[in-house]
Amino acid sequence: MMHRLFILIFACLVPVLAWGQESPQVSVPTDSAAIIMQPDTVVKKQNRFQRIKSRIKERIDNKLSEPYDTARTKGYWWRAMKHGKVNFNDSTMGYPKFLRFCWRTYKWGDRAFNSYDTSYVKSTGKNWKLILKSDNWIDSYIGRPYDDMRMVVNSNLVSNIGVSLSFMAVSVGYSVAVSNLVHGGKLSNKVDFSFTCARFAADAYYWENKNEVNVTYTDKRIDDQDHEFRMSGITRKAMGLTAYYFFNNRRYAQAAAYCFSKYQRRSAGSWLAGISLQHFDVQPDVEKMPETTRELIPTQEDAPRILYNDYCLLAGYGYNWVLGRKWLLNFTVTPYVGYRYNHKKSNDENVSKWSLNLRARIGAVYNHKKMFVGLQGYADHHRYKSKGTYLINSTINFVALVGIRF
Question: Same structural domain for residues 86 and 180?
Answer without folding.
Answer: no
